[in-house]
Amino acid sequence: MTDLGCFLHTAPEPPAGRLRVVVKDIIDVAGMPTTAGSRNWSRVATGDAACVRAVRATGAAIVGKGHTNEWAFGVDGRNPWWPDCRNPHDPERLPGGSSSGPAVAVAAGLADVGIGTDTSGSLRVPAALCGVVALRPTPGRIPLDGVQALAPSTDVVGPIARTPQAAAALFAAMAGPAPAAVTAPAQPRLGRIETLVEQATPDIAGRVRALGGEPIALDPLGPGALETHRVVQHYEAARVYAARGLPIDDLAPDVAARIAGGLDITDDQYVAGLRERAAISAAILAALERYDVLVAPTTTDVAPRRDDPSDIRTQLLSCVVPLTQAPVPIVAIPLPGPGLPVGAQLVGRPGTDEALLDLAGRLLS
Length: 365
Fold this sequence. Notes:
With 365 residues, the chain is an alpha/beta fold. The chain has 12 helices and 13 strands.
């Protein structure tokens, strides 16, 4: 197999039979470097992040730290400071990011499950492009202690796995007991978000429509949602980075540009962005009063080629970012069919993470 570049740091191979876990390199693992994909910043963690500690308690073994866009501020899986992370289905295509390493390692069978983060779509996009399952949990279900922040109001930690059942087991270890028992209906009412489906290629749109559901239009989830998210995320990320006291000149050019742009966003623009985000969230939550689950594509197309000069960021974010604006669980699942992997998102009501993963398992069985 081609060197996939999915590990930034590795641990000794565990004994046979233990669950192998790869951890995104913005999450602390005791005794291992946390570099956040950076070239001039590193620390050796003296303790595990809360989510890692919980997973170790089940007997699982950490096999390495996974590749990431620098400071998790990217969605394509590129990082100029470290060896390329490559898509296992076609090494000349991008793996997606920023949880690129865990997604690639799981898809390639180099780890059983992965732990990543999702601020804009950083679990769901690489899951779609690499053909695996990921969960963006209900915010607050998994603690963020020991995780380097990007944009705190939308940062979450979540699992990556090859099946919904494996993702559910990892989520249960990290999140603990559910706040209330929620069971997915045997015949859930599905609402298919045509506002997002229509942005996808005919092939992806057709596969998403094959999942069923009533077509619905949610206009607040259109292109304006990306700008709303950009304002809020870049404002927060720039101030988180400034608080670290590190020079912008040390950053990859694309990350430096986003941080610099975020510093130019005013407090008033940020507050306006929060109001706009609340309106988008309200539209999603209102739809979830009519439907048990919402369905949408994860990306508009298959994994872009590494040399693709087009606007990859918009292509990869346009279906995930609008849904990120609401405090809801979202499961990314691979869709059956020939060719490169493509994926769909299943969106549930807040706190229904376990039921949503159960539904994902039934849809893929």
